[in-house]
Amino acid sequence: MTNQGLGVAKTAIAVVGVTKVYGVGSGAVTALDDVSLEIRDNEFFTLLGPSGCGKTTLLRGIAGFEELTEGRILLFGEDIGPLPPNKRPVNTVFQQYALFPHMSVAQNVGFGLRMLGRDRSEIEATVQRTLDLVKLGALAGRRPTQLSGGQQQRVALARALATQPRVLLLDEPLSALDLKLRQEMRVELKQLQQETGITFVFVTHDQEEALTMSDRIAVMSDGKVQQVGGAQDIYDQPVNHFVADFIGETNFLDVEIEDIAGDRAHCRSRAGLALEAEAPEGARPGARVSVSVRPEKIGIGAGGDGADAVVERLTYLGTDTHYQVRVGDETLLVRVQNAHGRRSHFDVGARVALTFDPDAARILAD
Amino acid sequence: MTRAEAGLKEVIGPQERRELRIRRILLLPSLLVIGFGLVLPIGIVVVYSFLRPGTYGGVIWDFTFSAYIQFLFERDLFDNTLTFQTAYLEIYLRSFLQAVAATIGAFMLGFPAAYFIATRPLATRTMWVFLITVPYWVNLLIRTISMLFIIRDEGPLNYLLIWLGIVETPVRIAYTDFAVGLALIYSYLPFMVLPIYAAIERFDFRLMEAAYDLYANRWTILREIILPLAKPGIIAGSLLVFIPSLGSFLAPDILGGGKNLMIGNMIALQFQGSRNWPFGSAAAVILMGVVLIALMIFVRQQLRQRVRTN
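YS: structure for the whole thing
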C-alpha cells in the first residue's frame, strides 16, 4: 500500500488518522485531531505551526514517546505502534540536545551503536566518520559542557545519525542558537540530509526555516494539518486564512464574486477594488468570500491605470519599502522592492494607483 | 592557595574587602559553636588517650602510649611481655562489615524511594520529603526499643510470618546482627534518601528519553544514565549512613543483645564498667583516624577522576 507505482517516491512514514488526547473528561485536551499525512522517503519534511499546534506531539508519537489515542503510524509500511522507542529505527535530535553530560563527545555519538551491540572497532570508525561529517572530528575527547551551543547541536546530530536511522526526527533543533549560527545550520542540515539520504522530519515554528530547508511542509494548527505542500505552494496558494496568515505577510479582503469566466473568478471588494483569482470548485457568482493578497504582488504607481489609494504610512527597510495605503475603508500593505533603476517614492498623503498581478489574489476556504 | 582564591585577590577592591570582613564576623558564632562543641572535646579525647587510667575512672596525668599498645597487644601479667592480639581489631572489622551492610541495605531501599519522590509532580514532592522525615519526630531510643518489640520472638513480625505460613515457629530476629543491621538501616535511611533525591531532582529526564531513543532498554538507562548522574548523591548518602553506622551505639546495645561487641559499645564500656578512659579515648581516636584517612583517600581519588575526565 505504500508503494503507489513507478515514478512515485516511496512513503517513509504514513500517519493515518492519528488522534492524541491528554487527560479525561472536561479537562481533556486534544493535541492531535485525526491527523493523516504521508512523508516520502528521502525528503526533508517539515511540520510547521505555532506552539501548541501539535507538531511536537506528532513527532514524539513517531519517536514512540507518546502513546496514540487513536490511529496508526506506519514506517515503510510497518505499523510501529506497538514498538517502544528503543525498538524503532528512528532517532531524535532533541530541542535542548539532551547530550549525556558524563560522557565524552565520542561516547555520546557511539552510544546508540554500543546499545545495538556493534563491536568496538566498528563503533570507533563510525563515530569518527560521523563526527567528521558534522565537522567535529577534532573534538571527540571533549565533554558536552566544554562545547559551544553550535557544537553541542552538531554532537546531537552526529549522535542521532551514527546508527544510520531510516528517519531522523528533529525537534526545533535550531531554536537555541543565535541567528547567524541558525542560518549556517540551515544550509548544513539541508546538505546533511541530501548527503545521507535519510528522511528528515523537522519540527519548527519558524516559517523562514521551513521555507528555506524543506522539500515539503505540513502547516499545522489546533492539532490539525491545514495544508501540505512545497514551500512555493504554501506561500502562493494558501488554502485557508490560517495558512495565509501564518506564512509571510498578507492582506485579507472580503470580496463578492461578481462573475466566473472559465476558472477565473472576478471579485470586487467593499471599497470597489477589482480582483481576479482562480475560482475554487463550487464557487458561484454572488458568493461572499475572503481573499489573501500578498503585499509584494501589488504594484504602486503615481497615476494612470489602477485603483486610487492614499499613502497612510511608509516604512523604509533598505531593500524594501512598506506602504500602508487606504482605499475607501480598506487598508492594504504594499511592499515595493528598492531595486536597481526604481526611483518611485511616495510620501504620506500621496495619491497613488494600485495595480494587482493576475495571480495576486487567492480565494481562501475559510 | 587555589586558583579561585588567587583570582579573588586580584579583583577585589576596598569595598569588597570590607564586605569580606563583615562576612567573617558573621561566621564567628558558628565558629564558636564548632570550637567549643567539636574541636575542644575531640582535643580532650586525644589528650586523654595518651594518659594513664585512674582506678575509679578519670585519668592520671602521666604521658604514655599504653592505651594504643593495649589496642593491639596483650601484656602478660607476670613477665610484662607483649603478645599480638586481634580481639579489638575483630570488633573494628565486624563493625565495619555491619556498617557496609547497612549502607548497602539503605541504598537498595533508599534509591527507589528517592527516585519515586523525585519523579512525583512538584506539588506532592514536598509532602513526600516531609513524610520521610516524620520518624525523626520520635526519639531514636524509643524507636529502637519499639523495633525490639516488633521483631522479638512473640512480636507482630513473627506472628505475621507464622500467619503467612512462611515459618512454623517464631524465628530469632532480635539480638542478632541482622536485627542490628535492620535498626541501622531504619535509623539512617533518610540520610540516604535525601541526598539521592536532591541529585535526581535536578536530573534532566530528557536524557532518559534520548537514551531510550538510542536503543537502550530500561535497565541500561538505569545503569548508564541515571546511576552515573546520581553518583554525587549516592556517595553523599552512603557516607551519611556509613559513618554513623560504624560508630553506632544504640542499635547494637539494644538489639544486638550485647553478644557481639561493636566499636560504639566497646568505647562506651571503657567509660562505664571498665573505667579505662584513656583506652576508650584511644579507641575513639583510632576510629576517627581510620575514617578520616579513608575519606581523604576517597575524596582525593574522586577529585583526580574529575580532573581526568575534564
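YS: worth flagging: Chain A has two domains: 11-244, 249-364.
IM: good catch. Also The two ends of chain A are 33 Å apart (CA to CA).
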